[in-house]
Amino acid sequence: MLRERGAETAELSRDKRHAAAASVAFNVLVSLLKLVAALVTGSVSLLSDAVHSFTDLIASSLTFVSVRVAAAPPDEDHPFGHGKIESLTGFGEGIMVLAAVILIAVEAVKRLMNGHELGIPRLSFGLGATFFCSLAALGTSLYVLSVAKKTSSPALTVNANHLRIDFITSLGVFAGLSITKITGQPAVDPVIAIGLALWMSYGAIRLCTTAFQELLDHRLPEEEIARICAILDSDKRLLSYHRLRTRRSGSVRNIDLHIVLPREWTVVDAHQVADELEKRIMEDMAPAEVVIHVDPFDEGKVRASG
């Protein structure tokens, strides 16, 4: 059993590292391509998209490091493991996006108010670059998201959301550049950039909120708690259960609770029930660490509470 769990954990860690590496490679490519296209065309919307991709590059690099650190086994100084580094990384990524949004919005407003020259004859290069980047972002985000769901990694989930946003922003830039090329109106470009900044800020705030809740040991979602309770309620050997506590540490769910069993049961019988329940919950909520405490039934407490 321990060998199987170890092999499964190693496989999940390997998948997480591969997904993080793919995200880094994608962001290196598209960041450079968008920056070149922005310099060639003079487009502020393309520049904003390039800045966004550079923040994603930094975020992907942090994710690549964080999933490796989070996979380290518990030690004497960190008995609960290192999973929180993933939530901390997600929070940092959200802050970086918000900082980039402010820079983009300021530059876009300046150009909208003061006007700017846009290389309309060279927009074909920008259109091709953004179309390629949007398709690449979509494919990479779907891959990273599939691994994030498989491994329950918050850092990869955040990273996949970044890539999905990158796909949408690239489509928005493509639409804006297309309108500019057709109409010849350069004012469309900063308007698109401002719209992208608002969209990015919304996503960044959501990312920060989710990661911050995990850092504060917020309990698991209601649907996951319901799954745990369903397992407990289905075991007719239990008289009751209480003090159910849950939290996340990186991709691992930490669950502990007390179960009440007949007072006359032996320690061996009670321990067997607890072990069986721990195994069922760990399998259903994997990856998870479950600790169940056994309390003997106390009729006096029941009467007092009644």
Features:
single chain; mainly alpha; 3-stranded mixed β-sheet; 9 helices; 3 strands
* Proportion of residues in β-strands: 5-15%
Number of strands: 3
Low-confidence stretches: 302-306
- Please outline the major beta sheet: 3 strands, mixed
Helical content band: over 70%
Query: What overall form do the CA principal axes indicate?
Result: elongated
- Termini separation comes to 43 Å
Helix count?
9
Strand order of the largest sheet: 1-2-3
Rg value: 25 Å
- Overall residue-averaged pLDDT value: 81
Spell out the helices and strands N to C. HHHHHHHEEHEH
| Helix-strand category | mainly alpha
Summarize this, please?
With 306 residues, the protein is mainly α. Helices cover 73% and strands 9% of the residues.
What does this structure look like?
With 306 residues, the chain is mainly alpha-helical. Helices cover 73% and strands 9% of the residues. The chain has nine helices and three strands. The protein has a three-stranded mixed beta sheet with strand order 1-2-3. Strand 1 and strand 2 form a beta hairpin. Helix 1 runs antiparallel to helix 2 (44-70). The radius of gyration is 25 Å and the shape is elongated. Mean pLDDT is 81; it is low at 302-306.
